[in-house]
Amino acid sequence: MRRVFSHPNSMIVGSMASLLNYAGIETEIRNDILGGAAGEIAPGETWVELWVVKEARAEQAAQLIKEILEQPEGDDWICQHCQESNPATFDVCWQCGQPS
């Protein structure tokens, strides 16, 4: 196993885990319950971590995360299936799961 991403916001780490899992890269989230220890231990120690189960996939995982983080902001889009508004960063509708 190898750590490929860390962030203080568990929602962002969860989004990255979903991205990697969708790409067929098995992940594990760690430290997701350490937020309550903030102030008691070093701040970086409480960040949520994303680990790749198969170390051979770590470089691919890191590259995918880098690409997502570097994407420029675009316009929100409306799902053609359910008419729900979605952020530009979503490739799949959050409401019904249909691709953009």
Describe this protein's structure.
The structure is a single chain. The protein is α+β, with helices and mostly antiparallel strands. It has 2 domains: 2-69, Alpha-Beta Plaits, CATH 3.30.70; 74-100. Helix content is 25%, strand content 19%. The strands form 2 sheets. Strands 1-3-2 form a 3-stranded antiparallel sheet, covered by helices on one side. A two-stranded antiparallel sheet has the order 4-5.
Secondary-structure-derived class: alpha+beta
Largest sheet: 3 strands, antiparallel
Please name the CATH architecture of the largest domain: 2-Layer Sandwich
What is the number of independent domains?
A: 2
The sequence of SSEs as H and E is EHEEHEE
Could you name the ranges where pLDDT drops below 50 across 5 or more consecutive residues? none
- Quaternary structure classification: single chain
Percent of residues in helices comes to 25-40%
Shape: globular
Structure annotation, total helices:
2
Strand order of the largest sheet: 1-3-2
Count of distinct strands: 5
Question: Could you give the topology of this structure?
Answer:
Layout: E1 2-7, H1 10-22, E2 27-30, E3 48-52, H2 58-69, E4 77-78, E5 85-86
Antiparallel strand pairs: 1-3, 2-3, 4-5
